[in-house]
Design goal:
alpha+beta, 3 strands, single chain
């Protein structure tokens, strides 16, 4: 059983994302999926049992974060470059003291 992916309910997803369960249900509806470039990767066991693999949720979150950074701010590469530069400057400052 350890090799099997962890399966989450929509309530679990809401808890992880710290939002209301009804917001997660909205993301799984057909109209919301049609509007989104990258819909929430859910699957249905039957009409009343929608689930998502935890790994798929985490991948989806990473894609959403990267997309927003690309649209509104820095990319991962830019952030890493900035952090390295800052760490170098901090190291130099500590050496002067």
């Amino acid at each position: 059983m350890k090799d099997e992916p962890e399966i989450l309910t929509l309530k679990d997803v809401a808890r992880i994302l710290r939002t209301a369960t009804n917001k997660i249900y909205e993301l799984t509806r057909g109209r919301a999926k049609a509007r989104m470039d990258d819909p929430l990767p859910v699957f249905k066991i039957h009409s009343k049992m929608t689930r998502i693999r935890k790994a798929d949720l985490m991948d989806w979150l990473d894609r959403m974060i990267e997309k927003q950074r690309a649209e509104y701010g820095e990319t991962t590469q830019q952030r890493q470059t900035r952090q390295k530069k800052q760490a170098t400057e901090d190291f130099k400052e500590r050496g002067k003291k």
